[in-house]
Amino acid sequence: MDGIGRYRQVLLTFARNSLVRDMSFRANFIIEAISAVSWIAMNLGFYELIFSYTDTLGANTGWGKYQFFVFFATTTIISGIVEAFFMYNAEEFGELIRTGNLDFALLKPIDTQFLVSLQKIDWSSLSSTVIGGLMLVFAVWKLETTGQLSLTFLQVALYPVYVLCGVGIFYSLMISLAATSVWLGRNQSLQQFWFYITIFARYPMEIYDGPGKSGPNLAGKTLWGLFTFVIPVLVAVNIPARLLAMPLSDQHWGLVLYALGATVASLWLSRRLFKLALGSYRSASS
C-alpha cells in the first residue's frame, strides 16, 4: 500500500472506531448533537432580533440579513469541522505528555502529528456542519430569489476550497497552542484561549476596519491588521463567506489570493512549531 493509501486507511479506521465509541453511548451523542444545534438556534434567534431593527451591519458594509446568514453558516460549517476532527485531540495532547503516552505515539510507524491530530473524531460536532450547510443553502436561495445575488460557477467552485483554507488556518492555530504543552505541561487554558482568538473571526472584517464616530478607528484597525496578517483568523471565514454572499471588489480579490498564502504559511509554521516541540520532549522514562 502506498503512503497516501496507508494514511487514508488509518483515518478511516479512526473514523470507524470513533463512530463505534459514540454509538456505544447513544444518549450522550444525542445530547451533544442537540446542544450544538441549540447553540446555533439561539445565535440565529439573536441575529434575527438584530436584523429586525436594522437592514445591514453598519453603513456601507454590504452585510445585509441574508448576506450575514451566509457568513454565519460558513462560520458554523468551519467550526463544526474543526471541532469534530481536531478539538478533542488537541486538548488531549497535553494529557499524552503528562501520562507519558506520547512515547507510544512516537514509536508508531506513522507521522506523529497526523496520529495525535486525528485519532478521535467527535461525530456529534458534525451536526453543526450539517445545520450550517442547510442554513447556507437557504440564505443563498433567498439572496438569489430576491435578486441580490447571481452566483457564478467560479464562486461556487472556490467556496469549498476556501472553507478548507479556513479549516487549515484554525487547525494551525489549534495545533500550535497544543504544541506548547511540551514546555508548559498541562495547558488547560487551550480551549479558553482558542475561544478568545477565534471569537474575532465570527464577525465580518469590515466592523474592525470601518471609521470611528469621532475619528480614525485605531483600535479596530489594529485588531484588523493583527488578525488578518499576524494571526490570519479573519480571512478564515470572511473570504469563503464573501465569495458566496456578494460580488468581490479588486481589494477583496487580493485578500482571496492572500488567504491561500496565509493558509500555506500557517500550516508550515504550525508544523515547524510542532516538530520543535517534539524535539524538546523528554519521554516519561528519561
How many domains in all? 1
The poorly predicted ranges are: none
Measured by DSSP, the beta-strand proportion falls in under 5%
Q: Radius of gyration in whole Å, from Cα?
A: 20 Å
Compute the number of helices. 13
Oligomeric state of the chains?
A: single chain
Listing every helix as H and every strand as E from the N terminus to the C terminus, the arrangement reads HHHHHHHHHHHHH
Largest sheet, if any? Answer: none
Overall morphology: globular
As a percent range, the share of helical residues equals over 70%
**Class per helix and strand makeup:** mainly alpha
Number of strands: 0
Average pLDDT level: 86
Distance between the amino and carboxyl termini: 35 Å
Question: What does this entry look like structurally?
Answer:
- The chain is an all-alpha fold and 286 residues long.
- The protein has one domain (3-280).
- Helices cover 76% and strands 0% of the residues.
- It has helices spanning 3-24, 26-51, 65-99, 102-107, 112-118, 126-145, 153-179, 181-184, 190-198, 206-209, 218-230, 233-245, 250-280.
- Helix 7 runs antiparallel to helix 12.
- The longest helix has 35 residues, at 65-99.
- The mean pLDDT is 86.
